[in-house]
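Please predict the structure of the following assembly.
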Amino acid sequence: MDVSQHVHLKLIGDVGFIGQVKRFAEQDPENLKVESETKDDDPTRLGFDLATVSAVVVFVKGTLLVGELAAKLLKWMRHSEANKVVIQTPFQTLELHKDSGVTEEDVRKLLKAAMELH
Amino acid sequence: MGVQQDFGGFDPSFLGVTIRFGSDRSWQIYENAVESAEPLPIPAGNSSEETFETISITSVLSHEVRHFHDFFLTSYSAYLFRLRIQLLLNILELLPRLTESDGHYNCVPIPISKWCVLSAVERTRQLSRLPGRADGKPWVAVDLPYLDKKALEPAPGPKIVEDSMEAVQNLIAAAIRGQSRIRDLTYNPQTVSDTASFQPWQIFELSGLLVQMQEIWHYYGVPETESFTNYLISSKTPYGAILRVAWHMWGKTQRPLDSGLTSAMVTWSLLGSYERDAWKACPTERFVRLWTHVAKHGMPQAGARFTSLFEEWSRATELSTIDEGLSDALRTFRRAHDAVRDFAKVKGSFSAESFGPFLLRVLDGVVKTSEHMIAAFRQNPDRYVYPHLYIEHISSFANPSVRLLADGGFIRFNSPKKGREKDHIVEWAVEQGSDNLIASMIVPSSLSEHVFLEAHDVHRLSAMIALTDFLFADKARARADIQRTGRVWFSQSDLKPIEMFW
């Protein structure tokens, strides 16, 4: 399967989760770049159980290993204060809930599908 | 183990009650509570988190039912609903253009509200950011007009319905204006500081919480009510924040929180008239003005007559009376009904002929529900305001359908038959072996005999409104139920909906 060299993702989560994403982007700016950030103070609309959540749009280069990013997203989600995070690709949206049994493989598949040619 | 802290979240596009489950465990607790004649025991070794989770699940229905009832009484909700219906009607007219490719186009960039304000250069740049196509061809977006500021200004004259680019431009502009007005209603910039934001939804949540606390007291007792309240107040959830506001308010008067009086203040704040007061009818605006008044003149004594208090508060704040608010709510629901009636009469419109009769039936149920709720409120306001009387007399109010939603996963039924029971409507599900894995299901409720909206109709309207959010909403579109609805709708089309991020 051919894959694209890049993809944009939107990540929505609590301040801690988004902070981890931003720190990782600072460490590896070649492969992951935060392009914009917005705050939402009515996250109940999205089913969050916190008063404030953030959303970042990130640019991911194809050279970044999808498996590595999937593992990190899952780890950051488990350490976040909110009940979940949302990952949006141009073609799909996935909610990762702490208790819903989402696996690293599920996240890896989502990211891989986002980078495949459509 | 993390526990779920929020099981509700009223969704005004679903005209019923929504309960969300984040895990099989929380679903099992809910199912056990529904089937048990006795209060569900709380194991002695439970942590405070687990105790909170059990108490929350067993009482969440009362909280969400209160939202359902508040919806049909308030002009705030009626205006929002009317805007959503107008938005839906505009989008139904647009749908043929958004789903037919003509063999040339291959994608629909969403949200359309953002796409249509981009210049041609910016649109090309956005499409170039997408991963490539397997057939090597470029992404070609469906032809949608560019809308500048002038195009977004309200247009005078009747709506154009013929199939022209100008008609499409008018429909999209109307849809964007509708989205913007929904945002104006739901977000009050006057009650935002650097550290906190106080918005209408929080007043509605306080209304639900007061009823839920009463239900816990009724179902379990004082220790469990205190355990629930203390946990919530110290939590970072949105509900904790609004409960802290109420606690703080009573603390300043050096009196313990009086749930009846707090509920009266919340009810008065919710029942303003936008027709009379315009933006001053915003629930947060009314709540802040009322609090300023009682802080200066003292909190009323417990046992004061609510009808007198409501009149006094309206006089003191120079804001609309509850009676004006209730009348405005009903008039606004009726206007939404009339808009649908006019839409259904449009000759030669595929959308009007396909969806008009259904929408008219639902709007008829909406108006009847509001009429019933307002009549019940006017007949005996105490039964609505006092949380304990509300729970005792809940059978005199309208009966909701109940939607059970698995957040980010599936509800697993131990018995495959259970998910297929005749009176259950399974919205989204997959089968895995002998298991029914259900993502969303509507179940009947029998809180009262006053039923004006059929579960199937509520389900179908919710799916149609979800489609409008999928195409036009900025933030709510990330919700799993909205994504499911939108993507399934477009699975019949050659056009691929593509999320645009910037």
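Chain A has one domain: 7-113. Chain A has a mean pLDDT of 83.
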